[in-house]
Amino acid sequence: MELVTLTTDRLVLSLPTATDVEAIERACQDPEIPKWTTVPSPYTRKDAEDFVDLVSRSWAARTETVWGIRHADVLVGMIGLHDIAEHPAGGHAELGFWVAEPARGKGYIVEAAAAIVDWGFAELGLARIRWQAVAGNIPSARTARALGFRYEGLQRQALTSPRGRDDGWLAGLLATDDRTPVAWPVLD
Questions:
Q1: 184 within a domain of the structure (yes/no)
Q2: Is 21 part of a structural domain of the chain?
Q3: Which among 79, 104, 152, 160 is most buried, taking Cβ atoms within 10 Å?
Q4: For 165-176, how does the pLDDT look when each residue is reduced to its tens digit (9 = 90+)?
């Protein structure tokens, strides 16, 4: 798949490269990132180098589209569509993201994710985008709800990571959905 750079009012979303390795490694030292994601802990420079290489290969294979989120030329997070599955009736993918601690609370993920969701529906022909997170990840759930995702339930012991198995929250967004946020039982 051809690499795509997306821009929003405040952000540039582009392929992470070798020049981002240090920023990725530094961001992933924050214990909140491995707590809620599959990022290894401890996170090393080699992990960041391997991640940048994997992202490039995933774009080429059409299995994932991952972007570095940049604000004022500073890498503030990662976002992507993962596990892309194409289908004649419309494909599906999973939205995933993390944001560096100094950039939290500024709305960058909602802004970036809105652009990614629009792109996924329009350019990849997705019919559905899934969001899932470790149960208890309130900031991620608030982000998904703000994007119009509909809470679909709890998956017991469904998520795996280096720390083992976790219960997971699941939500979905269809290409045809009204994206107005609705109530979620785990948030309201």
A1: no
A2: yes
A3: 79
A4: 999 999 999 999
